[in-house]
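debug: dumping io for the single-chain case to check the tokenizer round-trip. Nothing else runs in this session.
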Amino acid sequence: MESTMSTGKAAKRLGVSVKTLQRWEREGRLIPAARTDSNRRLYTEPQLRAFIGWRQAPESSTRLVAYCRVSSAAQKPDLADQRRVLEEFVVARGLANVEFVEEVDGGLNGCEILVLNQERLSPEQEMVQDLMSIVHGFSSRLYGLRKDRKTLNEALGKDQDNTE
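debug: decoded output
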């Protein structure tokens, strides 16, 4: 039989918690390859690779690229952090010959992308995040209006306390 790994190691390999693996088994999404005499879950490397859609050995025409991107020059220091996270991911997965690409305000076209930090939210959590984004947007606009009013009052030479 192939070598097996514990639930903890499998969870770390997939970048999820042990509770997530247990839930996935209940949902029928990822059933353990075997169980120990004490009923502990065991997983195999090929099983995990198949689950996340990786082939055992990449074809010769396949290139692995780790892509780091920020949207502005002001965020350029974040590129180093992104690269460090991707390097750790590559090492943890045992991938070889990975090309690293770093970009500021660019984009990729015509390729397959594996999202590492995909956040899964319940509909309620998603709605709360949407509402918080809306509130933030309006509060930012309100702050901007206050700043504009202050600038206008200063330009007109009006007293700050007597603007009404």
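debug: round-trip ok. Confidence is low (pLDDT under 50) at residues 55-59.
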